[in-house]
Amino acid sequence: MELKEKLIASFMAFENLVDIDSPVHDVRSEAIKEFETKGFPSRRDEAWKYTSLNSILKHDYSVFPKSESHIDYNDIKKYFIHDIDTYKIVFIDGKYSSHLSETTHDGVDICLMSSALSKPKYRPIIENYFNKVAAKDGLTSLNTAFSQEGAYIHIPKNKSVAKPIQIIHFSTGNEAALMLQPRNLIVVDENSHVQIVERHQSLTENPVLTNSVTEIFADKRAIVDYYKIQNDNENASLIDSTFINQKQESCATVHTFSFGGKLTRNNLNFYQNGERIDSTLKGATIIGNRQHVDHNTLVHHIEPNCESHQDYKGIFDDHATGVFNGKVLVNREAQKTNAFQANNNILIGDKASINTKPQLEIFADDVKCSHGCTIGQLDESAMFYMRSRGIPEKEAKALLMYAFSNNVLSSVKIPEIKQRITNIIAKKLGVNIGFDL
Amino acid sequence: MLKIIDLHASVEDKAILKGINLEINAGEVHAIMGPNGSGKSTLASVIAGKEDYEVTQGDILFEDESINELAPEERAHKGVFLSFQYPTEIPGVSVTNFMKTAINETRKARKLGDMPANEMLKMIREKSEMLEIDRKFLSRSLNEGFSGGEKKRNEIFQLAMLEPKLAILDETDSGLDIDALRIVASGVNKIKSKDNAVIIITHYQRLLDYIIPDFVHVMFEGRIVKSGGKELALELEEKGYDWIREEVNA
Question: How many contacts, defined by CB atoms under 8 Å, are there between A and B?
Answer without folding.
Answer: 85
